[in-house]
Amino acid sequence: MHIAEGYLPPLHAAAWGVASAPFVVHGVRALTREVKANPESTLLLGASGAFTFVLSALKIPSVTGSCSHPTGTGLGAILFRPPIMAVLGTITLLFQALLLAHGGLTTLGANVFSMAIAGPWAGFGVYWLLRRFDVPLMVSVFFGAFVADLVTYCVTSVQLALAFPDPSSGFLGALGKFGSIFAVTQIPLAVSEGLLTVLVMRLLVKSSKGELTRLGVLLQGGRKSDTTTEAAVR
Amino acid sequence: MSRNAKINTLLLLVVAALAVLPLVLGLGDHKEEPFTGADAEAEVAITEIQPDYEPWFSPLYEPPSGEVESALFALQAAIGAGVLAYYFGLRKGRRQGEARAKTAEHHEVAEAQGTGDGAHEGAAAGHPLP
Question: What is the pLDDT of residue B120?
Fold first, then answer.
């Protein structure tokens, strides 16, 4: 669930926009480079974007008695790295802001920062670390996607707490409040997202060995792991 | 069912259970309006913290009703699911095509050499290995 239209004061909205813009511009460059260098990756890029589209359209009930939706950004971040995911995530957020009145144009910068930048980077970082320590591919993918999802909503909570500190308990009080709304709700959804990302990765390992090897997810010969960890992450 | 398919089914079942359990266990019962969106709850929390805050911008287009909104959300999911299905379908078709082409090649070689075992291997190659 993104920050609704008009619900960030103008100064905050502008600041998050400024913070996000370079990541998205850099991402567009990375994306064009990728497509030019490997035209055959366009299909898998489309599939990664599509995964985000599906997952962020599914509002799922959670333990807190409210609903939220996963982000689907972990998969693209693991496959194509976070800069490219910044672009795919921004496209999804634009679609929702323009057609669904979900999120918004004034809060786009903040929402892009949480869902398309912070989440993918955190998720990719966890995935990368786990792979370095020889953790099995699917376990790393699960935690990568889980963290990408959860961090997105933690950042959303921070953004709101910065904009609306509690009059008595200040920033931390507000963070607790928004965190209990967003982050706690998100925990089971992040588990779901991790499992679904593992499912899609399993299908990809079966169907797209060559592509995954080129992207460095699988090693030469389609193996999932190797004693030489150096090669595990491109 | 192959072991692979069993694992995939199990993954989907766990995801479904995670979504359904909060409803079955009535975890939303303590609320006036159970299972509203977290973003709407955040709006309420903002108004609690800063009662005089007014959203300074409203969406350019707002779906006129909950039905239209859910239709658009379904459309978003459908577009995504469609592209994903296209991707995996195409991959599967390509693999099958490659396997068939290989078999055909094998057949020609086998026929040229006058041996008959190409047909048997061809049937196996028609179904790509998991």
Answer: 52
